Amino acid sequence: MGFEEMTTTSKTQIGHFFEDFRVGQEIPHATPRTLTEGDVSLYIALYGSRFAINSSLEFARALGLPNAPADDALVFHLVLGKTVPDISLNAIANLGYASGRFGVPLYPGDTLSAASRVLGLRQNKDAKTGVVYVRSIGRNQRGEMVLDYCRWVMVRKRDPAAPAPEPLVPEFPEAVAGSELSVPPLLDLRGYDRTLAGSPYLWEDYEVGERIDHVDGLTIEEADHMLATRLYQNTARVHFNQHAEKDGRFGRRIVYGGHIISLARSLSFNGLGNAFKLVAINGGRHVAPSFAGDTIYAWSEVLDKTTLPGHEDVGVLRIRTVATKDRPGHDFPFKDAEGRYDPAVVLDFDYQVLIPRRGDA
Amino acid sequence: MGFEEMTTTSKTQIGHFFEDFRVGQEIPHATPRTLTEGDVSLYIALYGSRFAINSSLEFARALGLPNAPADDALVFHLVLGKTVPDISLNAIANLGYASGRFGVPLYPGDTLSAASRVLGLRQNKDAKTGVVYVRSIGRNQRGEMVLDYCRWVMVRKRDPAAPAPEPLVPEFPEAVAGSELSVPPLLDLRGYDRTLAGSPYLWEDYEVGERIDHVDGLTIEEADHMLATRLYQNTARVHFNQHAEKDGRFGRRIVYGGHIISLARSLSFNGLGNAFKLVAINGGRHVAPSFAGDTIYAWSEVLDKTTLPGHEDVGVLRIRTVATKDRPGHDFPFKDAEGRYDPAVVLDFDYQVLIPRRGDA
Amino acid sequence: MGFEEMTTTSKTQIGHFFEDFRVGQEIPHATPRTLTEGDVSLYIALYGSRFAINSSLEFARALGLPNAPADDALVFHLVLGKTVPDISLNAIANLGYASGRFGVPLYPGDTLSAASRVLGLRQNKDAKTGVVYVRSIGRNQRGEMVLDYCRWVMVRKRDPAAPAPEPLVPEFPEAVAGSELSVPPLLDLRGYDRTLAGSPYLWEDYEVGERIDHVDGLTIEEADHMLATRLYQNTARVHFNQHAEKDGRFGRRIVYGGHIISLARSLSFNGLGNAFKLVAINGGRHVAPSFAGDTIYAWSEVLDKTTLPGHEDVGVLRIRTVATKDRPGHDFPFKDAEGRYDPAVVLDFDYQVLIPRRGDA
To answer: Mind telling me how many Å the CA of B228 is from chain C's nearest CA?
Structure first.
């Protein structure tokens, strides 16, 4: 909508600056993307994910689905990647996520598109930057919602003298309400095979407050995180350009924060193996940057357990997964008495998952 | 045709030498290759390409195509890869390309085969090497031409005493003529959506002589370029074997030149986002080798603008894209007054692209 | 079957220890896996494999098959990967393979599952470890055998005081008998095109005792071997966690032994280009570990030549392929007079392949 002209030099897009955004602005994002089996294979190769529903057509069919759906974190990355050129190319920091809901599953052959709306703006006191709050929605080729989430980023101003907008900071719920959670329509967990899934533990086996060390660690390579981030068509420069980053804040390329989410989710299989589907992202924070050479560990805490009316076969766990670097999670590193994160923590991710119920009623 | 016997030790193929080639010789290449969605995903992961026509089945269908076609550069690499064991295994240098024309699009499920004809030969003065000129044609499973291009390489002689062939140096046109350009038969650009494509600029918006800095840089990793080059089943040894290359000319593995073409093409999206299809390769030169750790930048110049009779909806741009390493392109580094390339230049690529016309007639 | 409870801390699986295994125990493995075209593309990108039957739908159809089957080594890795969480998570060493038979081909869209049976157990004298012998079978979604092989691994005891089981060491044949080899039912080699396949040599051209240097070398990167091993959903920790391995036996991540098998198989194309299908694994030994930075070379010896009753168009070669690191294979490094392996040898792999016969009878 004439938005582009402001933010190009000759024909090159250099991204939007804080003063380019308006509350209420609708931004359709470029590059629709057909999910393919190639994406699914690459996702497994990048993270070693073992959730059977994403790995096996037959397992998914036994649950009533037409095909193995894409891993929910892959969907998240594809949607976020589309928003980058319009929202966060000039972002200094990806501050947080909230109100994330997964809708219909995305299957190979489906095409994902995304659009965002500006929910809020708040200029920082230094007048050089501001926080942009957006709600981004990814839809399939039938217009069905696949993912709907909010995030906020700190964005540079092009001109520090540009007037500050009226501040508007949206309020987000602490957690997505159960009534807003979406269970895939055809899903029938009577065919769920725990032996094939690789974990004996169901909804009834988890207790609020329970902590689980996911034990394993995965070391990040430059090639890994760049392959992943390019797969998502995420163009944020800090991930790719060592020539520029050598003079940047950290002297090196920064790993896309979502790469850590996927590493943590994949590690969480060991202990949460039947938590087969993300349904909500309550909140998330990239506490510290990660770099190639870091080894990522993760642990989780069960924050809440709920059921869904009309769904006897499935329950919901609210989980906090904390990822650390170069520090195993056996003693659950998190925050100190003053609320400061342990220096090893890189991710604090609060989300909701579906998990089968024992159904021994 | 009995060509192999000359150039094997026991059963191992060690490639052909300059004196093995004859003008007019026809060389069918091995390893037919079915393009799959896996190749397409890997291509995106390797280069972060964002041209919507290659990324979205729905976008391609809206243009009348049956599916999202493979990126033209991927097709180029697959054809070139097939020629390597027969043409350039003993090549010292990949000297140039000319007269390249893309034919029918290659879709997932199509199978590509390739064959070459020797167009010319010229022994060098040192009598140790010579230049081999070949025309290589890639075809799909129906025998339809997918890519037809010429290249020339400098190849070692096995025996310096072998007699020199009659020199024959083919002449190539400066650019492929408009009458030889192929527009995909079903293509109808009335459904072209610039918002989804990610760029507002059409054929009318570009001027001859205009230069565009593509801004971003991508750092090459050893794993990246080797994954790419193996995907193309390109067996040229200098790309893969550090144990041998540590004692070679550069002390390290050399990045496949085509990898730089794809990086530059992907970077060029920022400024040429609607240049959705390569139709010709007029010429190309790998000016200097690239290595892991190099950061590739690119800039482009519009060399010419033409229309195609009978195609009101699409125009042609002739583009020169120059890739540099560890040097941004904002001041368009190219050649000095004596015609010597700037030391940062690694690729000088002259090609033609289709781009939608405004159709405001 | 209640096996898991013994070997978890809270909900985390930490793998089985020597005293957890019982002779005759049946262990179904988790994570069924649908093979996709994405896996096939990644396999090519990881190893540069050029066997036409795995690369081209059309080539495979010309041989009577419905599609291009997965590379047999890929099938091997997928089956082995499934066994790791149950069998070898606490393994110190992967000691050997025997009695491996490939059954029906695995095609894109097929779903692979695996189960193992404990064949034998023998505690070591140190009472801290023991050897576990298992037979693992991979099946497709119709329950048809895809791969059936035996391997043995050295596994730690949880408690050195746990009583030693009655020792039982299974005997394996030196080589899989011809009567047990499986030729794909629809295979008809009359359509086999040697030019497309890339090698002129057929069964008749090989002699027992013949040695072939495969010439080329491939350097391993950390990102490569981790991508591969995660693709196979193989969770063995030593491959992925530099933070832990820096204090381990070698100070670094160890490359999955199967990665070396695939590198060697891919290199063997140069000299064994028509050996299009593995039908048996007679034996295999990972002689020494490999690490990122190593360059792998390979050479092969023809150990035996046999025919198959009722199959006039195909013969069998028994091959030993030896992989070395940082040492070319032109002088066939293997064992010294005392039977000790050359220090460069990393793999000694004894297997059987199908190769077309000339059929000039």
So the answer is: 6
Query: Residue C134: enclosing H or E segment and its boundaries?
Result: strand C129-139
C83-102 per-residue burial string, b: 16 or more CB within 10 A, e: under 16: bbbbbbbbbeebbbbbbbbb
Q: Tell me: the pLDDT tens digits for C280-304?
A: 999 999 999 999 999 999 999 999 9
pLDDT of residue B361: 43
Test C11 with A212 for CB contact under 8 angstroms: yes
The pLDDT of A49-62, averaged and rounded, is 98
Question: Which burial class, exposed, middle or buried, applies to A336 when counting CB atoms under 10 A from its CB (0-12, 13-18, 19+)?
Answer: exposed
Distance from CA of C93 to the nearest CA of B (A): 27
Task: Give pLDDT tens digits for C305-350.
Answer: 999 999 999 999 999 999 999 999 999 999 999 999 999 999 999 9
Q: Contact A233/B55, CB-based, under 8 Å?
A: yes
How many angstroms separate the CA atoms of C149 and C347, rounded?
Answer: 18
- pTM of the predicted model as reported, rounded to 2 decimal places: 0.97
Measure A215 CA to nearest chain C CA, in Å: 7
Chain B residue nearest residue A29, CA to CA: B196
ipTM exceeding 0.90, yes/no: yes
The neighbours of chain A, by the rule of 3 or more Cβ pairs under 8 Å, are B, C
Chains that touch C (3 or more CB pairs under 8 A): A, B
Query: Nearest residue of B to residue C55 by CA position?
Result: B33
